[in-house]
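pasting DUF692 domain-containing protein for the record, 278 residues
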Amino acid sequence: MRGMITDEYGVGIGWRPEIAGFVADLPGLRFVEVVAESLHHPAKHLPEGLRELRGRGVAVVPHGVRLGLGGADPVDPARVRHLAECAAALGSPMVSEHVAFVRAAGVEVGHLLPVPRTRDGLAAMVDNVHRTQAELPVPLALEPVAALFDWPDAELDEADFLTELLDRTGALLLLDIANVYANARNRGGDPLDLLDRLPLERVAYVHVAGGAEHDGRYHDTHTDPVPAEVIDLVAQLCARCRPPALMLERDGHYPPADQLRAELDAIARAAGRPAVTA
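structre below
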């Protein structure tokens, strides 16, 4: 399917300036992801590290965090244009954003909040996805977030909401396997139940990240090691579908290079992929 980061891309990593040197030294790296909002005037001023990766043929995917596709208001055209500019400047095969809202009535909440799983909430998100897709030069993938709470009066469960959203928009699915684990743990469910009901044939690529428990809730932190349970879910996912490309997310509190390499190798082993570290 057009835009997918297929299995030939293996295991990637989120590109961050703090670890740009580490990323540049990964010999088997085929793709990275960059937070779109961290790029300013991408057509003129790409970071040197990203330019070097592009020169090596590494695919770079812009990942938006501020668009607010799940809000009741129409998406900001300027934010959509920025995503499109990032994709064009990087020669990206696709862009990604979240199934979330981040502002209401002009107030920024500073977090990726879950979308109410109502028919009205679904309709609003479908409209915003369509508005966004109309301006993008490449396909769009949607990432369900880790939710610390669910809104009341839901009319659809998560699997039905996501499946209908993808069906009505034609978007791809950016599956964060760590979010699957976090949501199942916080809701008291089985993460495999969700995997078995999602349209896995639409998975564009997969996030893998760490987290930690605080006050009885599991938080998707991106600053802690990837737990063994999430690595196990990677293997379960790859047993259920054509193994997709996978990507390690780390945002702050970066461990020593040997620990980062060990996490990448653990993901590659679970997915039956070649290591990118050698």
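The chain is about 35% helix and 20% strand.
The chain has a mean pLDDT of 94.
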